[in-house]
Amino acid sequence: MKTIDLGNNESVVYGVFP
């Protein structure tokens, strides 16, 4: 699990994707 901060007060959690 990787949490990517988009900077727009949003975050995307990647599970299968690198």
Describe the structure.
This is DUF1391 domain-containing protein. There is one protein chain. By secondary structure, the chain is an all-beta fold. Helix content is 0%, strand content 44%. The chain contains no helices and 2 strands. The protein has strands at residues 2-5, 11-14. It is elongated and about 25 Å long.
Give a nutshell description of this structure.
This is DUF1391 domain-containing protein. With 18 residues, this protein is mainly β. The chain has strands spanning 2-5, 11-14.
Q: Which secondary structure elements does this structure contain, and how are they paired or packed?
A:
Layout: E1 2-5, E2 11-14
Q: Which terms would index this structure?
A:
single chain; 18 residues; two-stranded antiparallel sheet; elongated; DUF1391 domain-containing protein
